[in-house]
Specification:
The protein has two domains: 204 residues, Rossmann fold (3-Layer(aba) Sandwich); 31 residues, no CATH class. 28% of the residues lie in helices and 25% in strands. The protein has six helices and eleven strands. The chain has a nine-stranded mixed beta sheet, with helices on both faces.
Length: 253
């Protein structure tokens, strides 16, 4: 089975965002990056499917040269080779542009199964997977919690709202967007890190004529604020009032 897994490089969660001068994205020179967490679960699922059914796992990513940081990490975790559509303009690309950049190169590979994370930690649109499937002309299913593969088809378990699930049978080739928590992530070993240095990364130029479908007009960093409130009354009265405020105002209960 030939499996592709799409990964994205995103700013680390602990990083405090600093915006560029025109307030449309973060300052690239101040950012530390990591692998998008939902994509890490997609990568792990692809490795488990390969272990069960054989074949190869190909990591696919679009972006500037710095994206090779997470590509090498994916190779160190066990992926066989990588496909990198390299272009500086794809560093902050929307879902449509990223899918349009990857689709031609991925179509040539004729993958049996394509996995992506459910959404990205930076933009969070959850649209990349469905758009890529449409461009490749293959069926897709989203929010996947379980994958079973037969010779010519898939059986998947989708997470719905309200604690409900849906079981779907699909023909191959197909694309799935993987929900975080579907599996237990593995991490790169020293042996894997050394082996990754010798694995193939195929660089492909981005297709001509790519234009963003989403325009960021302005961004702002969250503003921190604090306020001290003294709650009077007896201890039991104060406790009841505190619980009420935590539930109705802070909404943490």
């Amino acid at each position: 089975m030939k499996i592709a897994v799409c990964i994205k490089q995103v700013p680390t969660r602990e990083w405090q965002p600093r915006l560029n001068d025109d307030k449309t994205w973060v300052r690239d020179q101040d950012v530390s990056y990591e692998m998008n967490e939902p994509d890490a679960y997609a990568l792990e699922e692809s490795l488990r499917l390969r272990e069960k059914h054989g074949g190869e796992v190909v990591v696919c990513s679009a972006g500037p040269a710095r994206v090779q940081q997470v590509i090498r990490e994916a190779l160190a975790r066990g992926a066989d080779r990588a496909l990198h559509v390299e272009d500086d303009a794809l560093g902050a690309a929307d879902a449509f542009t990223a899918a349009a950049a990857l689709a031609p190169a991925m179509a040539e590979q004729k993958f049996d199964l394509i996995l992506t994370g459910l959404q990205s930690d930076d933009q969070g649109h959850a649209q990349f997977g469905p758009v890529l499937a449409e461009k490749l002309g293959i069926p897709h299913s989203t929010i996947i919690m379980e994958v079973q593969v037969t010779d010519t088809s898939l059986k998947v378990k989708r997470e719905l709202e309200g604690g409900w699930f849906q079981h779907v049978t699909m023909a191959l080739p197909a694309l799935l967007t993987i929900q975080s928590g579907i599996n237990q992530l593995r991490y790169a070993t020293l042996k894997g890190i050394m082996a990754a240095k010798k694995k193939e990364i195929t660089k492909v130029a981005a297709p001509a004529g790519l234009s963003p479908r989403l325009k960021v007009v302005a961004m702002s960093a969250p503003q921190k604020s604090k306020q001290t409130v003294m709650i009077g009354g007896s201890p039991s009265e104060a406790a009841k009032e505190l619980v009420k405020r935590l539930r109705e105002e802070a909404r943490v209960l």
